[in-house]
Amino acid sequence: MKSKQLPIPDLEINTEDSTISDGYILxxxxxxxxxxxxxxEQVRQRIARALFHEYGISxxxxxxxxxxxxxxxxxxxxxxxxxHDSEHRVENLSRVVVCRQEPKVGRNxxxxxxxxxxxxxxxxxxxxxxHINSCKYGLWTNGLELFYLExxxxxxxxxxxxxxxxxxxxESLETQEVLSLARTRKAxxxxxxxxxxxxxxxxxxxxxxxxxxxxxxxxxxxxxxMHDEKAPRSQRRFWAGPKEQFDIEGRKEVRRxxxxxxxxxxxxxxxxxxxxxxxxxxxxxxxxxxxxxxxYDFTRTDVDAKGGAYQEIVGTNLRGDRxxxxxxxxxxxxxxxxxxxKENERILDPACGTGGFLVAVLAHLLKKFRDEANVxxxxxxxxxxxxxxxxxxxxxxxxxxxxxxDPFLIKACQMNMVMAGDGRGHLYHINSLEFPNGHLEGxxxxxxxxxxxxxxxxxxxxxxxxxxxxxxxxxLKAFELAFVWEKLEDGNYRRxxxxxxxxxxxxxxxxxxxxxxxPGGRFARGRKNS
Length: 530
Hints:
Elements: E1 24-26, E2 34-36, H1 39-53, E3 62-70, E4 73-82, E5 93-99, H2 119-131, E6 137-141, E7 146-153, E8 158-163, H3 189-207, H4 211-228, H5 248-268, H6 283-294, H7 303-315, H8 329-339, E9 347-349, H9 356-373, H10 382-399, E10 400-404, H11 407-421, E11 426-429, H12 443-449, E12 455-460, H13 473-476, E13 483-487, E14 493-499, H14 505-516, E15 517-525
Parallel strand pairs: 5-6, 9-10, 9-12, 10-11, 12-15
Antiparallel strand pairs: 1-2, 3-4, 4-5, 6-7, 7-8, 13-14
């Protein structure tokens, strides 16, 4: 049997402190080998991490490049998985993974193939599974496409059935009798990004829906998923059986569960939905997406993981056509840590976009709440988990505020907030540079709930762009920085009565953010990320 190589459950590796040479990466399975950093190896390492973090498969039960004999020829399996605590012998092999490098796509969406279209690629996996009697499950992946197979041995034939996912370690698809009660799992950050990309790409690439429309269809289903997680497990409807997405009647069953759920979502979030929104996906696309998303427990998945996956999809659809730029996540996290928002403080982002700063604040407070409760993420009791998350929800609903000029970004921000803290927060469709004046529908509530000089912390990434300067004199006259200032002999400056003809919006946003702060408040501004 392979000797123990890494402590369980903590498999985090600090590569900065290791001696890995440039061009090499640490092998997650062995914990000690350094492997050449190739596109294929990146996929294999990502899958190995997911096998541990999501499926509960121990690294001691995995082997990379395991040698087997297929039709009299030696072949190395990219990842071989053995029955728990068994020797690494071919007769103990239960699952196998074939890895290929991720396709290079740039900004384009990859068309997700179905099993028939990938038949030629799957032949290699099927041959391996057929010649290894104990191997029941197989996976072929290029990092973005994931094809799961289950081997069924009949009296006169061996069949390979497509399935939506693998079962957890040492379980079978038949273990769970009631599919609506099937165990969901905390998402691995990289694999959640992949799942989000797969869903979006399937709609855009396979349904022929434009990217922005595909995003909103994706968003509707995320709302459904989050709403469904509030229900008792026995009453949940956002699920798909392992083979439903491959069967016409199964796809129809998925739709019959989801449509009433979406109607409830629109009623529950009537401030965001007009009521006439529709899920226009085909049965095939709907079943695919439900199968992809249903496997994860979004409530228990880390805020950073959900935020990163969501922001990646948002960034490819809503970026920069009206001066919007999304601040790098590292800068957002640093700004939040420096300002260190407190539970009793009011926090505002007056150009919230999709909510990057606001979600980072929730992640920051969640860590504080967990530290105070002395619980480790993923290992807390149900009672402590509910207590900490209710505290976060209350904070999100009562202390966190956002505003934006773009109504579509307000809805996207709302979804990000719901995923992060299950709190709707207070989001306003207003022009922050006109505030407390203006004409947009969020103005009246904004005047009541976020008057100037009412915030303890302001974090934002204001709209940049000299090509969209502010020229409206009615706006400019409200800002000190919009006037022409002249330098005096003693080095001080005097404001003249002349207003500049145009001013960059980011300059005015600095002043407006300071206007929103209480005396002694704290302010951080992001930077342009072009």
